[in-house]
Amino acid sequence: MKSDYKMQALIVDDEIHARDELAALIEETGEFSVTGRCANALEALQLIKSSRPDVVFLDIQMPMVNGFELLSMIDEEDMPLVVFVSAYDEYAIEAFEANALDYLLKPVEKERLSKTVLRLRKNLEQDKRMGGMYGPHGDKRPCYPFSEITRIPCLLSNRVKLIDTSTVEFIRSDIAGLYVVCPSGEFYTELTLKVLEARTKLVRCHRQFLVNLDCVDEIILHGNLLAQMQTKSGRSVPVSRRYLKKVKDKLGI
């Protein structure tokens, strides 16, 4: 029995024909409204933040940032249900270890997709009965075992630059967005401070800053429990009183 509510679905695949075929197949079920089709993980990250879909049909092998890496870049409160879609069965174990709801092999068959629909409906309806306080549509979001982020994708005019976290001096947030600062310059990223603090070795030193302590040359202590750090390239990073003790402890001061 179909529900009146259509599940909001996002499709992420670097191959346009695969996106179109899957979109047609899932819309044919009458259970989904496709809110977006993304060619890469960065596009997907933007749409997940803005449209909060119920489910993401996610390819694994994509250039630059793969499907598993994308999961580690999403804020937990924005996390949709995940159905991996791949031409290879070798990733199935890793996918289910990542708590994916399902794993579909390309080309996706209608009969197999119908089982995925039932799993999705069961998950959404069950969590609504549990109180509906976990997600934007009343569903309880899964808990994914996030891996460490070692490369931060940053947007340039017509390309994506992957910055190794070991080369990052600090990350700053302002009204314009989030910027990764390294010796070669500053680069905009769609990731959040919360995600980067939780899933990298960068340390919070201010409400709007994370710092790589390996890149700190000195720390200058001021009155009122305030301080600032100088990086090896000569940049200044503020340290607020809230985080000063934590920073000093990590530096062994």
Structure description:
The chain has 253 residues and is α/β, with parallel strands linked by helices. It has helices at residues 16-28, 41-51, 67-71, 92-97, 110-129, 193-199, 241-251; strands at residues 7-12, 32-38, 55-59, 81-86, 102-105, 151-155, 160-164, 170-174, 177-182, 185-189, 203-206, 209-211, 216-221, 227-231, 236-239. It contains 7 helices and 15 strands. The protein has 2 domains: 7-129, Rossmann fold (3-Layer(aba) Sandwich), CATH 3.40.50; 163-251, OB fold (Dihydrolipoamide Acetyltransferase, E2P) (Beta Barrel), CATH 2.40.50.1020. The strands form 4 sheets. Strands 2-1-3-4-5 form a 5-stranded parallel β-sheet, with helices on both faces. A 5-stranded antiparallel β-sheet has the order 10-9-8-12-11.
Total beta-strand segments = 15
Main beta-sheet annotation: 5 strands, parallel
Computed CA radius of gyration, to the nearest angstrom: 21 Å
**Content-based structural category:** alpha/beta
| CATH fold field value of the largest domain | Rossmann fold
Q: Which segments are poorly predicted (pLDDT under 50) over 5 or more consecutive residues?
A: 131-140
Q: Which CATH-level-2 architecture of the largest domain? A: 3-Layer(aba) Sandwich
The fourth-level CATH homologous superfamily of the largest domain is: Response regulator
What's the helix-strand series?
A: EHEHEHEHEHEEEEEHEEEEEH
Shape designation: elongated
Strand order of the largest sheet: 2-1-3-4-5
Mean pLDDT: 89
| Overall structural domain count | 2
